[in-house]
Amino acid sequence: MNGLKMNSVRGRWLRSYAAVLLIPIAMMLVAYFQTRSVLEDEINRANSALLTQLQQDIDSHIDYAYRLSEMIAFNSKVRQFMRSTGTIGPEERIAMVQALSDFRLYTNTTRYVDRFYVYFRSGDFVLTEGSYYDARMYYDLQQSASGLTYEEWKQFLAQPYRGQFFSMQPIEGQPRTGILFAQSLPIEARNTPLATLVIELNEERLLSAIRNIQSYNQGKVYILDGTNQLLASSEKRTGAARSFESLNGETGFVHSQWDGEDVMLSYIQSNRTNWKYVYALPMRLYSQKAEYVRNLTILTVLLALAIGIVLAVLMARRQYDPLGKLVRSVAARSKLDPGTVGNEYDYLEEAIDSTLDHNNQMNRIIEKQKNVLRSNLFVRLLKGRVENDFPVIEVMSEYGIVLRSDYFAVLLIYLEDFSGFFRQDETDVEKKREFVRHIISNIVEELIGQQHQGWMTEIDEMLACTINFTSNLSTEEAKQELLQLTEEAQRFIGSRFHIYFTASVSTIRRSVAELPTAYQEAMEAMEYKMLLGAQKIIFYDQIQSFNHSYSYPLEKEQQLINHVKAGDYEQAKGILDEVIKHNLSEESLPMDMVRCLLFDVISTMMKAAIEVNLNQSELYEENRTAIQDLMNGVSVSAMQERMTLFLGKVCSHVDSKKKSHNFRLKEDILEFINEQYRDHNLSINTISARFDIHPSYLSRYFKEQVGDTLTDYINKLRVDKAKELLRNDEIFIKDICDLVGFYSISTFIRLFKKYEGVTPSSYRTSNDLK
Predict the structure, then answer these.
(1) Taking Cα atoms as reference points, which of 528, 564, 565, 556 lies closest to residue 544?
(2) Could you tell me the pTM of the whole model?
(3) Could you give the CA distance from residue 616 to residue 629 in angstroms, rounded to a whole number?
(4) Where are any strands of DSSP class E within 315-469?
(5) Can you give the pLDDT at residue 463?
(6) CA 573 to chain CA centroid, nearest Å
(7) What is the pLDDT of residue 488?
(8) What is the pLDDT of residue 768?
(9) pLDDT beyond 90 at 464
(10) Is the pLDDT at 466 greater than 90, yes or no?
(11) CA Rg, the chain, in Å?
């Protein structure tokens, strides 16, 4: 790197050091303002302590005023005067002398009361601690100097009071100041008072405590009542009004401006009287101390700046050496050329960016591999391919999986249809399927993750979600929440993305080791989509109540074959629908039994097709396709539709045979047999003689047209007629044998068991039980 570039780095460092040197200046300002705040707090704290002392001292004055008012209020002589009618006789004067004696006793025990008097409304007189006066005389002697007229004074005494304090405000030309306490008597009176007690507090003692505080810290003290009105102060009266409206709360301090000067008001409120004690201190008294601290700080910062500049230059020179070594080391290991960038910092930044980009690419590859490995872990867990000593919990933690409880379930998802989500021109089926699986995985994991946690993985062409529940759920609550979550996923994904799927759910399992069992349960439940239909939610518990056998008697099978051979599509379809409905609608079968039933029905239809000589290659292809559909899990309704179509094909084949030129002959032969089946001598020879046909030709013709040999047809007809007679318990089996044309009872029993699978007596017993 050339010298200019190296100097640019040093220049940046020097500018950085200069910025660092600005920090002491900022700290000085912070320290200055903090100092002012600390000084202000300390002064306020000291003022609050003084005010608390003042409050306690004055509260003792107030407490005495309350006690004195109670002693006077409950004095028996005072209460006697309140009850008098107004005339003062000898008895009242004696009582008055006793009351004055009590009053003098009260005044000898206090230092805080100048004087007090009681005004009685009924007699319009005043009783003091020293004498008795009528109202007018007392006003002339004591109250005329207060600035109030006689009427105003009488009006003041007429008001009801409940222990209230008032300020004796100065009147022009009148020097008196102080605090009055007024109490209406009797104390328990609620309406018009009978007398009024007035106590004048000793202002000198009150102000002496205030002056002590003022002399201590050169401030002024004010006493306010509960409405922030001035009661007393240490300030000499001036024409300027003092505002105390901003003093809210029980204690605190506020800034204000009086007479063009900033002052700090500290105040405290008495819980006894609700009075506020305010101390006003000029701001200049403690600003002087803050200015001293500020000057000292500025001097210190200037000295630090000078030293810092020198050190910054020296340190910039020393610190560049490691940077130069670092640049040379990176250049030796990097493909980047240092000469192509602006300076060392730019070069290092570009080199680091290049390295980080490479690391990010590696991290993305590792994260993708991590997801694949995690998915593979769950596939192994679900399929039970994990060894007993495999540390499952530790491996899960490496993939960021922390189990919340020992409760698990497996949700299996089978995609039914997602064609509505893509355009017609998108033909990459595997890519579309992968995208659909990604959508379903994200949505299902997010829905389950709202209260529990779940991990999706692809398994056996389906999606499996391993669900770990919170520990505070019961089995029924967990099952109900699974139903709600799966229904919401089906509804949201179907309506938003037109993706439809069938879901199956295992039972709730208690450990990771039981996940293979849960997966097998979900697989077994999923097989029932063949029975229950697509886009359903199938719980393993739902299929446990299924029966384990089906009903498909030989009689029904033979009837189906006979109707097919006769080309009777409607009757054959009726038998097919009846068998499927009886087993799948009225009874619940497990899927292996459903498949067995469908295999049996398919086998019956193949037998019938063989007997009516359907093309063998076509029959083989139909049989192979039906079996493949069964193995691939095609729904029962689809299989029933396929079998119905096959029935129609076979019956159409039989019907076409009926329309051949020999159709009339066959019908005549069948009619003759139906009329003569009771004849023991009925045989091929008698029938060929009747229709003038060679017996061998008749045998081949009958087999071709009907599907059975002539002998088999006659025997089956006789067995069918015997079955009808066997339903009547009053006819003996031997008589039935004769009635249907058999030579012997043994032949009858043998042939009946051959075609029906049971003996005639067993058949009759089974019908009686029904």
Answers:
(1) 528
(2) 0.39
(3) 20
(4) 408-417, 453-459, 462-468
(5) 92
(6) 55
(7) 92
(8) 66
(9) yes
(10) yes
(11) 58
629-657 burial, b for 16+ CB within 10 Å, e for fewer? bbeebbebeebbebbeebbeebbebbeeb
Q: Phi, psi at residue 401, to the nearest 5°?
A: -100, 120
pLDDT tens digits along 186-225: 887 667 788 888 888 766 666 666 666 655 556 777 787 7
Q: Which two tokens stand for residue 412?
A: 């299996």
What DSSP string runs through 315-354? HHHHHHHHHHHHHHHHHHHSSS-GGGSSSHHHHHHHHHHH
Enclosing H/E stretch for 685: helix 684-691
pLDDT tens-digit series, residues 413-423: 998 888 888 77
Q: In what order do the strands lie in the sheet with 462-468?
A: 453-459, 462-468, 408-417, 500-505, 537-539
Which tens digits make up the pLDDT trace of 96-149?
778 777 777 776 655 567 778 888 888 788 888 778 888 888 888 888 777 778
Tell me the C-alpha distance between 597 and 580, whole Å.
8
Contact indicator for 329, 321 with CB cutoff of 8 Å? no
Query: What b/e string do you get for 432-442 counting C-beta neighbours within 10 Å, with b at 16 or more?
Result: eeebbbeebbe
Q: Assess whether pLDDT exceeds 60 at residue 689.
A: yes
Torsion-angle region of residue 183: left (phi > 0), alpha (psi -120 to 50) or beta?
Answer: beta
Q: Would you state the pLDDT for residue 173?
A: 39
Instruction: Copy the structure tokens of residue 61.
Output: 């004055």
Phi, psi of 218 (to 5 degrees): 60, 25
CB < 8 Å & 24+ apart, contacts of 753-762: 755/558, 755/715, 755/716, 755/719, 756/554, 756/555, 756/558, 756/719, 756/723, 757/554, 760/722, 760/726, 760/733, 760/736, 761/733
Tokens for 289? Answer: 């101390």
> Using alpha carbons only, what angle is made at residue 573 by residues 571 and 577, rounded to the nearest 5 degrees?
120
**CA pseudo-torsion sign 181, 185, 186, 192:** negative
Q: Please tell me the distance from the alpha carbon of residue 91 to that of residue 84, in angstroms, as a whole number.
A: 11
- Residue 426: what are its φ and ψ, rounded to 5°? -85, 115
The single residue listed with the structure tokens 């021109």 is 425
Polymer length in residues for the chain: 770
Give the whole-angstrom CA distance, residue 102 versus residue 99.
5
Percent over 70 (pLDDT), the chain: 76
417: helix, strand or coil: strand
The Cα–Cα gap between 424 and 432 comes to: 12
Rounded Cα distance, 210 and 702, in Å: 141
Q: Of the candidates 518, 499, 516, 497, which has an alpha carbon nearest to the alpha carbon of residue 508?
A: 518
Q: Quick check: helix, strand or coil at residue 143?
A: helix
For residue 658, how many C-alpha atoms fall within 13 Å in the half-sphere facing its CB? 14
376's tokens: 């593979």
How far apart, in Å, are the Cα atoms of 705 and each of 65, 215, 670, 701, 755?
A: 136, 141, 11, 6, 21
Q: 143 and 153 in contact (C-beta within 8 Å)?
A: yes
Place of tokens 């084949």: 653
What is the C-alpha to C-alpha distance for residues 560 and 557, in angstroms, rounded to an integer? 5
For helices 684-691 and 695-706, give the axis angle rounded to 10 degrees: 100
Instruction: Tokens for 367, please give them.
Output: 């994260």
Bond preceding residue 186 cis, omega within 30 of 0: yes
Tell me how far CA of residue 106 lies from CA of 67, 125, 186, 231, in angstroms: 10, 20, 19, 25
pLDDT surpassing 70 at residue 766: yes
- Answer for the pair 182, 161: CB distance below 8 angstroms, yes or no: yes
Nearest to 591 by CA among 530, 639, 538: 530
Residue 322, both tokens: 């490691």
- Of 480, 48, 461, 109, the closest CA to residue 279 belongs to 48
Amino acid type, 170: P
Rounded CA-CA distance 225/269 in Å is 9
